[in-house]
Amino acid sequence: MRALHSALRRAVLALVTIFALTPAASWAQPSVQSSVTTTPESAATQRQIPMPALVFDLDTGRVLLAHDAGRRWYPASLTKLMTAWLVMDAVDRGLLSFDAEATISKQAVMRIKRGAAVYGAKPGQKMRIGDMLAFLMVRSDADMANALAEAVAGSQEAFVERMNRTAARLGMTGTSFANPHGMHSPDQFTTARDMAVLARSIYARFLKKHPRWWRFFATRRIAKTVVKKNGKTKTYHLKNRNHLLFMMPEADGMKTGFLCTSGFNLLATARRDGARLAAVVFGRRSAYNRASVARILLEEGFRRKRAGEGLRLRVVQLRNGLDSAVNMRPHVCNKRVIPEVWDRLNTLAGWGVLLGPFKTSLRALGVAEAELLAADMADTGRPYGTLVIPAKEAAQVGLPRIWQVGADARGRPRKPRRRYGYGALIWRLTEPEALTICSRASAHEVGCAVMSQTALNRLAAELRAIREKRGNAKRKAVKRRAKMRPTTREERLRRLRKLAQAQKTAREKRRRLHKRTETAK
């Protein structure tokens, strides 16, 4: 690993040298080298998973960014937004009160699949409607969804019928509900467009009329008091599952969702300079990824809002597709396949953009996909992948450092924990495309460096040399282990006797040390 890091460090330093020795005119203006053919790779190679995303204005419904907004998807816990809609509708019409208490039934507790987030309520326990709604939105507890469904409609089956009737009335033409909590069912699906319609309805019908109800979506931590077996109580302060609330100061809602079949979903809202935007993100690979992608898309949405850019469409004008819902289990819960630059060195061509550094390759991959979405290039077939960036050379290619040395409690300098980070490389770009992606990434507070074709060719050559060196090292290690492996019965017995003698010597040494310690006492 040290040899790999040192070789990669030399590769990055070589790129820095190229940047330093290349005249400004050769990379600041289009050149002969920049006219390389940028034919996209095949869809199977480039598009690892679909990337449904939608950014829109909550007040006007104007679409600022849309990609695969009509593709069917499993909603997971975003289903609970419709559950919350029906609860708030009952409270708004005076049929229920947030201060009223409801009794948790046995059906509400038992009809939960394994793996779902639950509050842990007991049958017969009484809870306030407001508290149940808060835990439903903040902690996504499935038993709270069942209990609220029974409090509103009398039974879960009747509540599901109300959910579907309400979805049809709101114009959610690509949505079907099968339960109030969002656990997987082949009959339960939605689209990013329909989730946007639902979010706009919640905002316009309830949150504008009752601004205090934002607390159900924007609460960062919620207190949960548990009574132990000995009668004592203990209070836990649980974090909201929406990581965006901790990443973006302007974020104030709404709901997360996760299933192996759906991936990590998020419907997020944020308010800045009097404008309130929302973003729908489906099928991300981790909870942090969905939050970081939503943050980048919201930042891009605010930029387009200020510049007057975006689509001349409203959310309700988007069309839903009729294709089947995508199953994300192979990409999320099975072994994750992350595209790496190592696997496609022969395709490095054109101009490139290097993003990073990041703490994990998964985060690097998520940001690369978000930047392609923000640049409206998700369908252009531009290849991207992850690679290792040494910490010392990250700043030399124009990337910020994520390793803070700092000091310990005594004021002594603390050594950095990581010597390297991960970056995301997007290539086969033209020079204007690379400059556009990098300028927008910088506006999104993402480290970015533009790489010319010469720099990419140099990087490919260095990475090939590193891969060859690593392969040689592996072959030598295999040969070395083969030589050390005993080949005859006498050799195996000799090694076993030697190991037994070493263990006996160690036991005697510990016995003498213990005896000496006892004598001293």
Structural class: alpha+beta
Biggest sheet: strands, sense, closure? 5 strands, antiparallel
State the shape. globular
Total helices: the number is: 18
Average pLDDT metric: 84
Helix content: 40-55%
Query: Beta-strand percentage?
Result: 15-25%
- Structural Rg: 28 Å
Alpha-carbon distance between the two ends: 48 Å
Number of extended strands: 13
Q: Report strand order across the widest sheet.
A: 2-1-9-8-7
- Identify low-pLDDT runs: 11-47, 402-411
List the helices and strands and how they pair.
Elements: H1 2-21, H2 24-28, H3 43-46, E1 53-57, E2 63-67, H4 80-92, E3 101-103, H5 106-110, E4 126-128, H6 129-138, H7 142-153, H8 156-170, H9 192-207, H10 215-218, E5 221-227, E6 233-239, H11 244-247, E7 251-259, E8 263-272, E9 275-284, H12 287-307, H13 329-332, E10 351-358, H14 361-374, E11 384-390, H15 391-394, E12 420-429, H16 431-443, E13 448-451, H17 453-484, H18 489-520
Antiparallel strand pairs: 1-2, 1-9, 3-4, 5-6, 7-8, 8-9, 10-12, 10-13, 11-12
Helix pairs in contact: 1-17, 4-7, 4-9, 6-7, 7-8, 12-14
